[in-house]
Sequence to fold (544 residues):
Amino acid sequence: MRLLPPSLRRLSVPLLSGAIATAVLLSTGCESGSDEPVVADAAASETLADVDWAMHGLNPSETRFSTLDQINPDNVEDLGLDWYFDYPAARGKEATPIVVDGKIYTSGSWSNIFAHDALTGEMLWFFDPKVPRDWAIHLCCDVVNRGVALHEGNVYFGTLDGRLISLNSADGSKRWEVQTTDRNKPYSITGAPRIVKNKVIIGNGGAELGVRGYVSAYNLDDGELAWRFYTVPGNPDDGFENTAMKKAAETWGGGEWWEIGGGGTVWDSMAYDPELNLLYVGVGNGAPWNRQLRSPDGGDNLYLSSILALNPDDGSYVWHYQTTPGDSWDYTATQHMILATLNIAGAPRDVIMQAPKNGFFYVLDRKTGELLSADAYAAVTWATHVDLESGRPQETENARYTDGPTGLNLPGPIGGHNWHPMSYNPQHGLVYIPRQDAGWVYKTDENFEYKHGYWNTGTDSMPAALPDDPAIKQAVLKTVRGLVVAWDPVAKKPRWEIEHEGPWNGGILSTAGNLMLQGNARGELVIYSADEGERLWSFDAQTG
Fold:
């Protein structure tokens, strides 16, 4: 850790320390080899109860909307760097820091966990779960981790090799550890756990590599497994875990999907409604992507690419909505979900909102799963619209590449929106979506053969390569975009947009001070006005 000299430091208004992070996160190439938590004997900081960010999305609804308004367009220009911390590994950082009682708890590369004094930046302790470095072969997109959960003085987090660990938040000492996955299969954990009542909920990743997805609940005190819900059916000859799995199996047509695993991993988003006592889980894509190979006789392949509502007490099925039936494009529904109350048709409706990879923004009744609206928030070519009566997208000709390769298909596998969190601002009635347009050409891999632990998409990636013709290449590149969409979920259209230089920009925070904050692919932290999207302030953070 390095602190700037006092002459270069300026006091940050509490909002930033309670919202995204007080630190500007920089990276170096060194690795830590510590076996035990490293604890600093630092004086306790002043408690800042009004700037706590105690859970992954700030609240169970995961709105990422801070009610703090001390920073606003009138004084935002006075912001400046207070302190920064260099992480010990120059790899991906995707975590939402948790801030409670003047301390920041967050995760870095290789599932390492850090605790900092929020006012000074001093590292209080550090925990290395010692993930085997060769486990990185089982990962899609770098050795990342999206954060920890904190509950009654204890920290909970998942590791890349499938463990769930609980630490004492005071000193980083380990309380318990459980293996949540089969170590003989290429499972991983990159998502943040959620705390619901007396349980910690965690999913996993690894669909394309050959696994069967599920979400699990463990007791907070001792890590004992409380329940597990599989998101796709296993081998029918082995019987089914519950009625939901039996019904799901009826939607898988032919083939032996269970040999690969089926996919459907719960690798990121969840939300919880304490009044309805419903846990909402976002489910991922199939394995392989290509339904022609996964389920040759067709079928919706439940519960792939779906929002699942579960009873968190026992993990039982309540309802589901499938955003992409029979997914063949890697259109996961693991993207951020937000709970809100909207005025729809003149009456308040308690809803769940999601902008999954497939390019449509969904508003559902969160008690029943009824579809209320679904409209394109990004460029979409694979479907014309979503039929509100059936709830099904109306696919365009050859979208499923059954008659040869598609044209330039939008969205591509990275989606119109990926893991980067969006934010809902109830003051302006806007959802801020980190949108991206990046097309892909899908074609069946005629020589597909499943290989355990390898990337199994069932598609031929060569047609998606940029053509040699400079004019065609330039035309394709012009379709690639990155934006912030200020989406009005009642009017069902964007109110305004901000265009970036390219895709893959960071998650979003909005505040009662009429601010919207985002890190971008240029490495800037930028603050905009939340009502109109006017750029107000920026800082070269050297990371998005």
